[in-house]
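Objective 1b. Sequence-to-structure analysis of NCS2 family permease.
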Amino acid sequence: MQNVSSGSATRTEILAGVSTFLATMYVIVVNPAILSQAGLPFSGVLTATVLLSFGCSLMMGLYARNPMVVAPGMGLNAFFTFTAVKGMGIRPEVALGAVFWAGILFLILSLFNARSAIVKIIPKPLRYAVSAGIGLFITLIGFENARFIIANPATLVSIASLKDPIILTFSFGLLVTAVLVVRNFPGAIIIGIALTTLAALPVGRWWGDASAVNFGQKTLVNFQGILAAPDFSLLGKLDLVHSLQWSLWPVIFAFVFTDLFDSLSTFVGVAEAADLYDKDGTPRNLNRSLLTDAVATTAAGLLGSSPGTAYIESAVGIAQGGRTGLTAIVAGSLFLPFLFLSPLLSVIPAIATAPALVLVGAFMMKPVTKINWGQLDDAIPAFLALVLIPFSYSITQGIIWGFLSWTVIKLTAGKSNEVPVGLLIVDAFCILALFSGH
């Protein structure tokens, strides 16, 4: 038994698994809420989310033997919806195909142990900046979904009036969820979503705002619609042929890049928090963990979701004493009952998931502290990547301008040693993407 060799009691591992699940279960609601804006059915994405989280968390526990949950990544689903589908006009089925091919590429890189070469190509400041930039992007989406930030012809954007009951409900949800998170309350985000949903009910009833609540004839008003069979409508709906068009390779690359460094940073962070290192000083079973991550991305395309990745929230279970794969197995298994709750969960309004998106953005800002802001040839490219992701409403644009500005600034500063040949190749793809019409 793994737990014996690690010195961790089975009871501790089980409790750690429950804690990890409570910290990550918000993905069951938030992922469908985001991907449904790309035109995918909420219930279908929910089924894909649960199956992916269950199956790949089990693989992480049984094969990689690490205490980490694998589920659809927050930044990756935002890229899928708002950059690929809405921004570039790609059909959702084609975007799912791009997810699949990104997974295949990730698998090849993992099998041939090419991660070391890739890690050396991408400058660390850009990795940190992209992660934080995606966090800002998700936060912007949360505020937009809540109608807290609105368009303004004079100032481009502005804050909505607090007289709007929708804004008051969102503000209540944001503050309550933030307090629960700060106090380390188990399942803080999902409880915040539930409380905000309940608070939104009178808004829909008394003010008649359909965007506040989605309680219709099939939901809480009619108790016959709380449970339903899983929705497998997205299974195998990906378009494998059209997703291989040349114009979509920047999308595939962005999926691979974001997923790879998201997972690497998670494995390194978790290893540091729990001292889970192999003899050579690398995070424990890193190859197997990365292979699991690659399988999660490939499976996501087949199931009907954005790419899966290891969740940094797994650190919650590790803080509870989880050290083995049993933690991931327990956490993954707890996703399964939600296969049958799609009618109940689909009534959750956008203003209830919006606070979770805002706070997820806050969680993703930590890497900016690792950037040396006093070193301007590092700081300026990182800054451009950081701000252009939310300002351009495109993760791809942030990555592209981060890479290109890094290369130009470093070369003109006489630091060509900080521009590897591999990065020049990446730059060439970035330039092609800029002039591809997207």
